[in-house]
Write a structure and sequence with these properties.
By secondary structure, this protein is an alpha/beta fold. The protein has 7 helices and 11 strands. The chain has one domain: HUPs (Rossmann fold), CATH 3.40.50.620. It is 29% helix and 24% strand. Helix 2 packs across helix 5 and helix 3 crosses helix 4. The protein is globular, with a radius of gyration of 22 Å.
Length: 262
């Protein structure tokens, strides 16, 4: 089973103070901590688990600057066999469609039975790369995948639906599966694994290597473009009450009365 995992190097913004940069179309990345996208982390672990069970290889692919090597090293330390970074100034500004286009040009020339992606990326939340990649490769796909099993060249997958429901679908291989969080428990990176990962080569490919023109990547080759990015304004704030229990109870009663609730 030869598996390709598409991963992304993203900033951790859950507890960070976010500021918009001078262009108005991106956030300031100075001081932010970067790591593998959460959904991709589960996709990577699932790929390694499948390799350990069925044999084969795992190849991790990302698109980004040299800083993205940190994520690829993490993939190698966790059990990936090879790593590829797609990097070129012309790739800047690519939307989900353009990213999938670039990935497809590389993946179609690699031996694979399965391509795993995260269900979405934490920095943009578009959730488009997986299905678009499958379409460009001309192979079937499934999204929000919570469980994967194989039987006679077919992947039987459980998909998460709304309201806590799941559906089971059969997807012929090769296929693209977009993995949901919770499908497994990502392992910790061992010190030995980290040392071995540092010695492995990370292959880099640019615009010429993928066989695309400048007009097919970046903003020129994208369907969506960010016009403006902003931090949502604070419209309501919480009121903190102080005093004795009796005083706070009286204040709460007064607030409810002024709002017409009592």
């Amino acid at each position: 089973m030869n598996i390709i995992v598409c991963v992304k190097h993203v900033p951790e913004t859950a507890e960070a103070e976010i500021e918009i940069d001078s262009t108005g179309t991106a956030i300031k990345k100075t001081g932010l901590v970067f790591d593998i996208n959460e959904w991709d982390d589960y996709a990577l672990e699932e790929a390694v688990l499948l390799k350990e069970k069925l044999g084969g290889t795992v190849t991790a692919i990302t698109m980004g600057s040299e800083d993205s090597d940190a994520v690829l090293r993490k993939c190698l330390a966790r059990g990936a066999d090879d790593a590829i970074r797609l990097t070129d100034p012309q790739f800047e500004g690519s939307d989900g469609y353009a990213i999938a286009k670039i990935l497809s040009r590389v993946i179609k020339n690699l031996p694979f039975n399965l391509v795993l992606t995260g269900a979405q990326a934490s920095d943009d939340g578009y959730a488009t790369v997986g299905p678009t990649l499958a379409t460009l490769l001309g192979i079937p796909h499934a999204t929000m995948v919570k469980k994967i099993e194989f039987n006679d060249g077919v992947a039987q997958v459980n998909r998460e639906l709304e309201g806590g429901l799941e559906e089971i679908v059969e997807v012929p291989l090769p296929a693209v599966l977009a993995v949901q969080t919770g499908i497994n428990e990502p392992r910790y990176v061992s010190i030995m694994g980290t040392r071995k990962a540092l010695k492995k080569e990370i292959k880099t490919l640019g615009l010429v290597d993928v066989g695309l023109s400048e007009n097919e990547v970046g903003e020129a080759g994208s369907w969506a473009k960010i016009e403006k990015m902003y931090v949502p304004p604070v419209e309501k704030q919480a009121d903190f009450l102080s005093g004795s229990p009796e005083e706070m109870a009286a204040k709460i009663a007064e607030i409810l009365k002024t709002k017409g609730l009592i």
